[in-house]
TrEMBL record, chains A, B:
Intracellular or extracellular location(s): Nucleus
Domain YDG, residue spans: 11-150
Name of the protein in its database record: YDG domain-containing protein
Full-protein residues shown: 498 to 663 of 666
Lineage: Eukaryota, Viridiplantae, Streptophyta, Embryophyta, Tracheophyta
Native source organism of the sequence: Zizania palustris
Amino acid sequence: PDFTKPRPTVGNVSGVEVGDEFRYRVELAILGIHRPYQGGIDSHHNDGAFVAISIVASGVYPYELSSSGELIYTGSGGKPADKEGDQKLERGNLALYNCIATKTPVRVIHGFKRGKDSPSTFTYDGLYRVVDFWTKGQSGSMVFKYRLQRIPGQPKLPSHIVKFLR
Amino acid sequence: PDFTKPRPTVGNVSGVEVGDEFRYRVELAILGIHRPYQGGIDSHHNDGAFVAISIVASGVYPYELSSSGELIYTGSGGKPADKEGDQKLERGNLALYNCIATKTPVRVIHGFKRGKDSPSTFTYDGLYRVVDFWTKGQSGSMVFKYRLQRIPGQPKLPSHIVKFLR
DNA sequence: TAGACGTAGA
DNA sequence: TCTACGTCTA
């Protein structure tokens, strides 16, 4: 296999199962689970459409995950904490938006710490569908919000992981 | 050996020889050759003195290397190209300065590209002594300059590497 | 060429 | 808490 440059993949990555845990972002990149080294949204042109294929939620931006499998994810850019301007519907944000109309499944990875001084790890949470999109905040600090719904029929995440999700 | 957290080492690192080449900065960090993932100056408190133990010269900041083994290295911070303020004599800059009085040997690593589209690699150049220090530029864009002299008796760097140094 | 939910050490 | 001569893809 070519580990030097993984192909952008829609859907599950061969050999990677729900609950698989990794220590570094670069591992996700090497395996093609999520290629950006820092970015939260991986995207590519798939069949003529520019879509997102995976996202990482590690708490840098606020997000919400409910036990029903609903995930509210915040768009990229604009640095909400710093209020450095509005987010723009481009790059990853646009790609994730385009997943709604194209019904493209998105891999979701959670980054979290098991304990206060533990290092971050990244856990594969499975495939989600982007079902809704809206903006939040006033002009000058506007961010995008995406509602994702976990696709049914996948293994559940271990409860000890859900417990630690921020 | 403990690969998880290399001890700060003054002088040569066991098993690493002049001319050894590496692909990624993280390799230098793992082996304890140069621990910072991005920073150009590695420092630590050695025997009561805060000193530098290694530097990376990869061309982000200007530097000069002469065939006589003299290296002019630019301090860190202030982002000279952007002129974002004066460099400060703190952190790595201070540590490198303290090497003059303490005569602490400093490991030098060169980062360069073999070809235009080749990836950067990092080559261990051996031990240098910091022999001089001055400032350059007007207030508001002032940077530090360090003159280092290669310690005699070490293997020469391959000429094909010297050729590519920027 | 610029952006990005990284990493580790001071 | 902040910095840092990284590293990749779009």
